[in-house]
From TrEMBL:
CDD domains: cyt_P460_Mc-like. InterPro entries: Cytochrome_P460 (IPR032033), Cytochrome_P460_sp (IPR038142), Haem-bd (IPR025992). Coiled coil: none annotated. Residues 22-151 form the Haem-binding domain. This is Cytochrome P460.
């Protein structure tokens, strides 16, 4: 067989492969179930500058008003697009805003604020094909200010307590008198024991809160040994959140109690949320957050995966704890 004949056969094989691939792609376009837009049940209402950002950068995934580019509709890429959009809608859907209570809406915007602040949303892969979706620093600030404004509005029935130490003592006394502690829908039970635990870190967010983070003995030992990958089962971390209340001397102390956020490490029970059981208990009555057991699967862990994987899914690396304290 001469070289000319060999090249001819190779060419025919390559053309056959190309024809097969083209045919397969064409067939896929007709057999793939397209992404659909369900009805809009409750549209979010926000200032026009906020809506402009959301519609440009968020609505294509987090709403029932998705507008796909032509290349998003081509299989097999369309399979990934469809899966990503359906997952995004489960986490947060601006077209079903009526399903969220006032507190949940504020919480959703704090999640948005943190995700855009740390450049985790929109996803980098999405921005490669949709570069106009990226937020500018000025737009991040617009989202931050709006989030802060609705946070204060949501607490319009509360006033900052100026005698911060008295407020802190009053909250502790209130929770000390509870006979039966509440349970989160996913099984995490509130415990007052964290008041006796060591402080392992502190943090703040844009809404001028004061956040003190406690750890049980297992968590403290993990901090001392930097065992974050993964955290050991049995570790419990509690973030107690208060409003900041400056006194007459300008010192900032804990004011009105907001909530206590629990993270309980149990790799067997909480397999869908990286081994962490999430819970939040709000107000002096310690009202549990969430209506169903899967609230952490669709809400909490999505942010923790994006922002805190390097710290074992906690938002900040805890400070070293002095074992002699």
């Amino acid at each position: 067989m001469n070289s000319l004949t060999r090249k001819s056969k190779v060419k025919k094989v390559l053309l056959g492969i190309i024809a097969f691939v083209v045919l397969a792609v064409v067939v896929l376009q007709f057999t793939t179930q397209p992404l659909t837009n369900p009805p809009v049940t409750g549209t979010i209402e926000a200032p026009k500058e906020v809506m402009a950002i959301l519609q440009r950068s968020c609505f294509n995934c987090h709403s029932n008003e998705t507008k796909l580019a032509w290349f998003d509709k081509i299989a097999p890429l369309s399979w990934r697009v469809k899966a990503d959009v359906e997952h995004a809608r489960q986490i947060m859907n601006f077209s079903e805003w009526d399903k969220l209570g006032a507190g949940d809406r504020v919480g959703a915007f704090w999640g948005i604020t943190n995700m855009v602040k740390f450049d985790r949303m929109p996803l980098k892969g999405y921005r490669l094909l949709h570069p106009d979706a990226k937020l500018s620093p000025a737009e991040v600030e617009i989202i931050r200010k709006y989030t802060e404004s609705i946070t204060h509005n949501d607490r319009s029935d509360s006033t900052i307590v100026h005698d911060a130490q008295e407020a802190f003592a009053a909250w502790r006394k209130q929770t000390d008198t509870l006979k039966v502690f509440p349970k989160s829908p996913n099984g995490v039970v509130y415990t007052d024991e964290f008041k006796k635990w060591k402080v392992i870190s502190m943090s703040t967010l844009f809404e001028n809160s004061m956040r003190v983070i406690y750890g049980n003995d297992i968590a403290v030992k993990a901090v001392e040994n930097e065992q974050f990958h993964p955290w050991p089962d049995g570790a419990v971390v509690v973030k107690a959140v208060w409003e900041q209340a400056p006194n007459e001397y300008g010192e900032v102390r804990p004011g009105k109690f907001i909530n206590a956020q629990f993270l309980v490490k149990d790799g067997k029970q909480y397999t869908e949320t990286e081994g962490w059981g999430f819970a939040k208990f709000s107000g002096n009555n310690l009202t549990p957050y969430g209506h169903t057991a899967n609230f952490a699967t669709t809400q909490c862990i999505s942010c923790h995966r994006q922002l805190a994987e390097e710290t074992g899914y906690l938002f900040s690396v805890p400070l070293k704890v002095n074992p002699k304290q």
